[in-house]
Write a structure and sequence with these properties.
Blueprint lengths: L1 E4 L3 E4 L5 E6 L8 H13 L5 E8 L3 E8 L1 E2 L4 E2 L2 H20 L11 E4 L3 H17 L12 E3 L17
Antiparallel strand pairs: 1-2, 3-5, 3-8, 4-5, 4-9, 6-7
C-alpha cells in the first residue's frame, strides 16, 4: 500500500480498483473535439499501465475506475500519481496544441477512492455509466459518445457458482 499527499491525502492499494474524478480548471466546458481527445488519453494505457474498467468524459469533469498494473522493470505497481500525470498531461498538451495556446486545462488535484468490494465496484460503475443520464445529456448511457466500458467482466466479482439466489 502506498500513501501520498498533495493537497488532499491519497491512498493506493495494490491490485485494487480506484474510483477517480478530475475536473477542468474553473469548471470550463470542454468542446466535443476536446472530449474526444480526453477519452482517447484515458483509454491509451489500458492494458499497459492500468486496467481501465470504465471512463466517462463529461463537459467539465472525468470519472474513471482503473486498477494500476505492475511495472515489471521497476518491480512495483505504477502509481496513481504517474497515471494521472500521464492522462492529464497528454490531454492538456493535445487540447492546447489544437487551439494554439498554453496553460492549465485541469485542476491540479484529482479525487480518488479505493473501491473495496465487487458490490461497491458494480455500484460505482453504474454511477459512472448513468452520469450523462443524470445530467440530462442523453436518455440512455449507451447514446453518450464519451463513455467507455471494459468488455471484460468485473474481475472482482465472485464466479457465478458462488452467487447464491436471494
Amino acid at each position: 500500500m502506498q500513501f501520498y499527499r498533495r493537497n488532499l491525502p491519497h491512498m493506493q492499494r495494490d491490485y485494487t480498483p480506484n474510483f477517480i474524478t478530475f475536473c477542468t480548471k474553473f469548471r470550463r466546458i470542454l468542446p466535443d473535439w476536446a472530449r474526444d481527445i480526453v477519452l482517447g488519453c484515458c483509454i491509451h494505457d489500458h492494458g499497459k499501465r492500468y486496467r481501465l474498467e470504465v471512463a466517462v468524459v463529461m463537459p467539465d469533469h472525468v470519472h474513471l475506475i482503473l486498477v494500476p498494473l505492475a511495472d515489471e522493470a521497476r518491480r512495483s505497481i505504477i502509481s496513481l500519481v504517474e497515471i494521472m500525470k500521464a492522462i492529464k498531461g497528454a490531454s492538456a498538451h493535445a487540447i492546447n496544441r489544437q487551439v494554439g495556446r498554453h496553460g492549465a486545462i485541469w485542476q491540479e488535484e484529482s479525487f480518488d477512492r479505493v473501491v473495496r468490494s465487487s458490490e461497491s465496484l458494480d455500484v460505482k460503475i453504474e454511477y459512472i455509466l448513468q452520469n450523462p443520464v443524470r445530467k440530462a445529456l442523453v436518455e440512455d448511457w449507451r447514446q453518450y459518445r464519451w463513455i467507455w466500458q471494459s468488455p471484460e467482466e468485473n474481475p472482482c466479482a465472485p464466479p457465478p457458482s458462488v452467487i447464491k439466489p436471494t
